[in-house]
Design a protein that fits this description.
Blueprint lengths: L1 H23 L13 H10 L3 H27 L13 E2 L4 E2 L6 H12 L2
Helix pairs in contact: 1-3, 1-4, 3-4
Length: 118
């Protein structure tokens, strides 16, 4: 389903954007106006100096954001406690089709990432 692929591409793009933005904020000359945690970024700028340390930080951010997206998709799939109260869905507006019709979104998203990331 093309819409599902577009969803996964957009979710990956969002993940990549925020990882990159956070990583770039480790530069001492970074404009941190976007962040509510300028002071914390300034502390990290002093702690994470070399490429190896910044790469470790990047990997952790990537993992955390992937995990958050995965958890949101588990919720949409009906696999968490919210499903006891109600379910949510992602529906393509133009044809009113659910994106949940074939397979679990959270699993398919991870499969998508395995295919497109190194």
């Amino acid at each position: 389903m093309e819409e599902k692929k577009q969803l996964f591409e957009q979710l990956k793009s969002i993940k990549d954007y925020w990882v990159k933005t956070s990583l770039e904020s480790l530069d001492e000359n970074a404009d941190l106006i976007w962040s509510d945690y300028e002071e914390e970024y300034q502390k990290l700028q002093h702690l994470l100096k070399n490429d190896e340390e910044k790469e470790a930080y990047e990997k952790i951010l990537n993992e955390l954001i992937k995990g958050a997206i995965h958890s949101i998709l588990v919720m949409v799939d009906g696999g968490d406690d919210l499903a006891d109260k109600y379910t949510v869905d992602l529906v393509v507006e133009k044809n009113n089709k659910s994106l949940k019709t074939s397979g679990a979104l959270h699993e398919e998203f991870y499969d998508y990432l395995l295919d497109v990331e190194d």
